[in-house]
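Task 17 of the worksheet. Students: predict the tertiary structure of the chain below and write it out as structure tokens. Keep your answer in the requested format; marks are given for formatting as well as content.
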Amino acid sequence: MSKLLARTGYAREQSSSQLEGIWEQVVPETLREKSRATTIKRGLLEVLVTHSALVQEMSFHKRKVIEQLTQLIPQAAISDIRCRVSADVGEPRP
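Model answer:
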């Protein structure tokens, strides 16, 4: 059963929605609706933001956000955050 779930992407989708929920808890309110955590690969959390000024703002909050994420999901071993500008941040995920 776990192999089937892995093949269909259900586990990935589940962890993605969990990550989004945790992101909402730790990100500053000014960034909440303008950013979305997407994936964690080798300790690097990728975050989509609505415009380039938010990349700079996120850099001010990065250390504190990483500390909070480490407390909430230590198994992810997040050591850095990379922001990328994307127009579809505010839109609901399919």
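Marker's comment: The two ends are 24 Å apart (CA to CA). The longest strand covers residues 35-41.
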